[in-house]
Amino acid sequence: MPLSEHEQRLFEQIEQSLAEDPKFASAVRASDPRFHARRRLLVAVSVIIAGLALVVYGTVSKTPLLGVAGFVVMLGAAAFAMLSQRKAQSPDLHVVGGTASRRVRSGRRSSFIDRLEERWRQRPEGHR
User: N or C: which terminus of the chain carries fewer CB neighbours within 10 A?
Assistant: First the structure.
């Protein structure tokens, strides 16, 4: 249902006042899952670099356990980075045109539900 002209003007005024509020902008940024995923990705990259430094130091100092520990740290940080990247690419809710869609799980069940939803949308008008 479209907004009336008065509602549209009110909406634009609210939007303008919220855009000018720095506290609100920082609160929205802090609750954005992409912001947190980006920060986790940066932490993971720095830990990968630290793990690489441990591997090199373990090799130079001829301490194999230190090199292995560095490799394990690098592997864990890489897994953490990949998980953060996945979270950044698929947030829980997507707002499109004022409607929210749920997150679709992967696997056989999601395709079954997707097919049912598609059939429901394509059913004839008289059978509601």
Answer: N
- Look at strands 99-101 and 94-96 and give their pairing: antiparallel
In degrees, rounded to 5, the angle at the alpha carbon of residue 60 between the alpha carbons of residues 59 and 66 is 45
Q: List the one residue out of 71, 55, 74 whose CA is nearest residue 63.
A: 55
Task: Identify the sign of the CA torsion 113, 115, 116, 122.
Answer: positive
| Coil, helix or strand at residue 65 | helix
- pLDDT per residue as tens digits for the range 48-101: 999 999 999 999 999 999 999 999 999 999 999 888 877 767 655 444 444 444
Residue 52 is classified by DSSP as: H
Tokens 């990705």 label which residue?
A: 41
